[in-house]
Amino acid sequence: MAITPEAVALDIGGRTIDLAVRRSARARRIGLRIDPVRANAELVVPRRVGLAEALRFADGKRDWLAQRIAALPQAVTFTDGASISVGGETIVIRHDPQTRGAVRREGADLIVAGTPEHCARRVRDWLKAQARGMLDRRSRELALRVGRRVSGVRLGDPKSRWGSCSPEGGLSYSWRLILAPPFVLDRKSTRLNSSH
Fold first, then answer.
1. Considering the entire predicted model, what is its pTM?
2. For the segment 55-69, what is each residue's pLDDT rounded down to a tens digit?
3. Which of 134, 73, 80, 125 has its CA nearest to residue 103?
4. pLDDT digit string (tens) for 11-57?
5. What are the CB-based long-range contacts (under 8 Å, 24+) for 142-149?
């Protein structure tokens, strides 16, 4: 276990993962959670608990960490030839430096222009735009169904939740929901609309 002030390198089944250490004034006990986006873990340490005690706690949870990390889906890179699921449809990324425009969809292909080093960012930007339209439209449809009003829809990239809502009807989502099956979106939208 290699330690720096804010992170620990932890060997889990022959794989080294970063264990971010975060002090929390609000935490009542030591917490450990997986960040599915970065495939690493975070150790939340209350102020009154020493770092050595918290690290012993994490060390005792190696099997749990190994199981959770092994269960994470394979990371998809937004590169030429990669397949991604968008709203339940499989789309193949096709990098074409000769094409005009940034990104366009042609059937089951997503054509990405420009240099290879910009491919991932352009795909991500396109996905965010798709997510914004789909989440806004679907949220308003489901809000009508449950008798609620949506005052606005925002997108972000939160670490620990798919979405949240305000008492005024503002909904915030992770743009990554566009990559989830449609039933996940409907379940999340209905739950958020029902709770405000």
1. 0.66
2. 999 989 988 988 888
3. 125
4. 877 778 888 899 999 999 999 988 776 778 899 999 999 999 999 99
5. 142/186, 142/189, 142/190, 142/193, 143/169, 143/193, 145/190, 146/190, 146/193, 146/194, 148/193, 148/194, 148/196
